[in-house]
Amino acid sequence: MYSVDHLVQHHLKQMEKLSRQQEKAARKRERQQQKLEEAFAKFREEIASTLPLPAGEQTEQPAPQTSGTGLLHMLRAFLF
Q: Region annotation Disordered: residue ranges (predicted)?
């Protein structure tokens, strides 16, 4: 039989391992999100430089706010 101390130590090791795995996954998600944001910014710049603006419109006009989830999924499909 294992002693209670041994079982507690084993449990603590498992919890530490899980915590490290979760931290690693969080860092990976952050890197992927940053990569996606950079690609999206580059994509917007390319689109803005490619598309001609209609007469009388300014380049400083803010883009309409949308949910962006469809576009993000499309970008992810192209990037990853």
A: 14-35
